[in-house]
Amino acid sequence: MIERYAPQDIADIFSEESKFKRFLKIEVLASEALAKLRIIPQSAYREIRQKAKISVDKIKKIEGKTHHDVVAFILNLSESLGKSSQYIHFGLTSSDLLDTTLAWQIKDCLEVILKDLEALTREVKKKALKYKDTICVGRTHGVHAEVYSFGLKFAFFYDELVRVRRLLRDSKDIVCCGKISGAVGAFAHLPPEVEEFVCKKIGVTAAKISSQVVSRDRLAYLLSILALLGSVIERFATEIRHLQKTETKEAEEPFYSGQKGSSAMPHKRNPIICERMSGLARLLRANMLAGFENINLWHERDISHSSAERVIIPDSISLVVYILRKFKEVIKNLSVYPENMLKNLEISQGLIYSQAVLLKLMIKGLKRERAYDLVQKISFEVIKNSTNLKEELLKSKEARKYLSSEEVEKIFLPHNYLKNINTIYKRLNLLR
What we know:
Layout: H1 8-13, H2 16-36, H3 42-51, H4 56-66, H5 69-79, H6 94-130, E1 135-140, E2 143-149, H7 150-170, H8 172-175, E3 177-178, H9 192-202, E4 205-206, H10 217-243, E5 251-252, H11 272-293, H12 304-332, E6 335-336, H13 338-347, H14 354-363, H15 368-385, H16 389-395, H17 397-400, H18 405-411, H19 421-427
Helix pairs in contact: 2-3, 2-6, 2-9, 4-5, 6-7, 6-12, 7-10, 10-11, 10-12, 11-12, 14-15
């Protein structure tokens, strides 16, 4: 991941130093399990535990000759040991280290992601509560539809985030899955107890069955959840972009002191962070596709997945953490313009109340088809003559057969449309 979008804590988890230290821990734990099972001498385990050490620089130098990172690691580790070096990597294969380390890294990353997701969710909840009773216009197909609550936009986003958080939390046992089962996964040269011991010690699930590798559907599942999270955030970022349009101007992402919007146009305040969210979400979805391609491995394993995973796993996790942190700041510092929402409410000349008129006419005895045609006819006259639906209703002889002037006035009270939002908020546990 390029430095611009690489959170340091995630970069540290996926660093070469972190990887090889985890390799070392797994090797020591495997030796401990083998000694407990009397497969290797206790004295060998004690020496491994006391003397085992590695040098990342030396490993990289050896890898220049071996072209194999795990072999280079084992050779460097063996240099620090005496006779006990023959018991290092006893019965293991490279993927026992690689996959179990990756599961461990993902476990640590999920803790970071969930913490950052919770922080974003809290900010969204605050906005949902703050703007619960703030009136705006709801739009479908980009066209004014009916009166809406600005807070409901955040409540809807909150619900999406809660669902993804649940998916991430529940995915741990599926995606944080290690294996110490040997070259083809049949435990030919070491018992399953070693796998169970090592995985339990580092806090990952032991695969019930594996080949030379853990099944890649697990990683595809992780990547799909990360892509889903990115897409959910992108949706709301796109909402902000639409609301920030000059002709709308109902909300605006933060614009910081000293910030410039354009090299040519000094007045510009562009939604660049929200646009960035859209761009990075595309990468998450692309990485997800590569993850699905990696499921299709030959027989008990080929290495076609490895090169892709070295990119898509750390990159996707880095991107998600970056997105979560950056978008939290957008939500926290969002500028909101309720006065413009009220102005925009009037742009459609009262037509957003057309369904309320339709239903009131039906209640008063007019058949639906006739009521619909009447309201549509009056609405089109409003559009043609640039008048107002309420005015046209009051002038309509046919409409006035069913509606008094007092009833017409009540139809056009915007807060009527918010009478049930407390119920929605309670469903989401935003209100008690």
